[in-house]
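Minutes, project check-in
Item: structure for the 331-residue chain
Input as provided by the requester:
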Amino acid sequence: MLQAGRNGGNAAPLRLGALFLGAAILALPWFATGYLVHFATLLFMFMVLAQSWNLIGGLAGYPSFGNVVFFGIGAYTTGLLMARGGVSFAPSLLAGALLGTAFAAGVGLPVLRLHGHYFAVATYATAEAMREIVNNLTGLTGGGMGLNLPLMAGSERAVGVYFYYLMLGVLVAALAVNAGILRTRLGYGLLAIREDEDAALVSGIDATRYKVIAFGLSAFLAALAGGIYAYWITYIDPGNAFDVSISVTMLVMVLLGGSGTLWGPPVGALVLMGLTEFLWSRFLEVHAALLGAVIILVVLFLPDGLLAMIGQGRRGLSPASLLQNLRRYSV
């Protein structure tokens, strides 16, 4: 009882802090400058992308260098339906997310049979191939000239606030998806695959199905972010929609915060974007080198991510303990 009282006492300040933080996030657009609202919206977008990468790279242990392909598919599907087809934003966004998921399922069946650097190269090549396809479909996509989306009605401030809350809502959904998966058989199965795929197969886990599901969910979230980004910016081209640096940024954010954890990806996104903004504003000419040095130091000395510093990172679950947890759940 004494221990329970201590836990309850420790939990109360955390709940209160979380409540104040949530209230501050919800109220921020009404008090902050337009620049800060824009930065926060971009931060939420990268948190969503980091969470999407975490599903396949953090939980399953398959380091994708091509997740930007889903971001680009979501952006171009949304943009084309709105600009060429006259379709409204909501159905265009949903279509982009579903197409990204379908593409992930189709590509995932052969690609997810590869391992390690072979998988990484294959996903990178997929993203580059899609970028070239979109770039050469000039009559449909505009090619290198890009694609202009319809402007949203309303003042600049109102539009900024709308996309702030929309991206925040997708972030909450992404957190809910990751939290839900971590508590299910799928989550334990993916962790078992990450630790020892051969042992997972021997235990009866359908590794291919689990990986394709994770890849599809990852694609759905990334495509949603891409579609929202396209309408928010109102202009896309193959260079920014399929930029490989977006994939690398997702990966770095997850590793920085804590791979395979719930809060690691958003924490990594916050730290990386905060550092980037700080260094860019004060050390313009050398900010990229300084940022790279900071990331290298963190990866070298905190291989489990920043959350490991406070005991919330990876808990070192063995394949045996993961498989034991799997038996608690039905398929």
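Outcome recorded: The chain has a mean pLDDT of 86.
No further action items on this chain.
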